[in-house]
Write a structure and sequence with these properties.
This protein is of the alpha/beta class. It is 40% helix and 24% strand. The model has no long low-confidence stretch (mean pLDDT 90).
């Protein structure tokens, strides 16, 4: 039994006429009849009751017709998926990214890319770097935008851009009007940040080490939005990337004068894996947009 036999059978069953079905399939009537007969012999049961050139489907044939249609749908879907995988302007791309990128960069990138390639389908996920990298290794994502991995023999990481970090203060804080601040200026304030293991927390801990200052945490959360919300409630201060959705009446973001407060975000992917043309094309689009070679619109 093969795909061709199933297509011949389904067409003959739907048209209930061998000659007309043969014309539709662009095959001779004897060739179609032989194919149906071979299928019946293989199944051990008649599929049609014959009335000259006309046919009617038997009760067994009706059940087999339902299954044949489903099988052919799967054949067609598999064939289309295979074609999509070879086309850079079609197919699926699974992308993971940091929570802090979800309100500015990612929507802009996706909108610009979809304007160029509307038939590409995206599957998105967000989380901290360590979780995204685990999912990347498990095959959940094709690409991830993350901070530098601590270590992974499977993941390659390509730096793309530097993201400035800011001191985040409650709007009523005595230092809220300052144009720039040093880390020492907030040394006595309760500090709020992400839990252990988050790449952003490691970046902040590195900043304090470079400044030779101790660091302890009054509150630890899972998301930058939660941390900013706690700061806005007056529970302490923090250091975060620019918060696009932060309410300026509650939170103030002040640049850091010393030490230089930047973290690098890059493109993570599995080493020695052949990505689909669509994934490769999107990775190149990200590079060109962030390098200023291509306008993201």
């Amino acid at each position: 039994m093969d795909e061709q036999q199933l297509r011949y059978f389904v067409t003959a069953a739907e048209m209930e006429h061998i000659t007309k079905a043969a014309e539709t399939l662009s095959v001779s009537q004897p060739a179609l009849s032989r194919a149906v007969t071979r299928l019946e012999r293989e199944l051990g049961a008649p599929l049609f009751e014959r009335h000259g050139r006309s046919v009617s489907v038997t009760s067994f044939g009706k059940e087999f017709l339902k299954r044949s249609r489903r099988i052919l749908q799967e054949f067609d879907a598999a064939r289309q998926d295979a074609l999509d995988l070879q086309a850079p302007d079609r197919g699926k791309i699974s992308l993971g990214f940091l929570h802090t990128l979800s309100t500015g960069l990612i929507p802009d990138l996706l909108a610009g890319y979809k304007a160029r390639y509307p038939d590409v389908h995206f599957i998105l996920g967000q989380g901290p770097s360590h979780t995204l990298l685990e999912q990347l290794e498990d095959g959940v994502f094709d690409l991830c935008l993350t901070a530098l991995p601590e270590f992974s023999s499977k993941v390659s990481w390509e730096p793309l851009w530097e993201e400035e970090l800011f001191i985040i203060l409650p709007a009523g804080h005595p230092l809220a009007e300052k144009e720039r601040l040093n880390l020492s200026d907030i040394q006595k304030d309760p500090f709020i940040h992400l839990k252990q293991g988050y790449s952003l927390r490691r970046s902040v801990e590195r900043l304090f080490r470079e400044a030779g200052l101790p660091l302890s945490f009054a509150f630890e959360g899972d998301e930058a939005d939660t941390v900013a919300g706690l700061v806005g409630a007056g529970l302490g201060v923090s250091i975060l990337p620019a918060q696009q959705t932060a309410d300026p009446s509650q939170v103030v973001q002040v640049p850091i004068a010393f030490p230089r407060a930047l973290r690098t975000i890059g493109l993570s992917r599995i080493q020695q894996t052949s990505a689909s043309p669509a994934v490769q094309a999107f990775a190149e689009y990200i590079r060109r947009v962030l390098a200023g070679e291509l306008k993201n619109e």
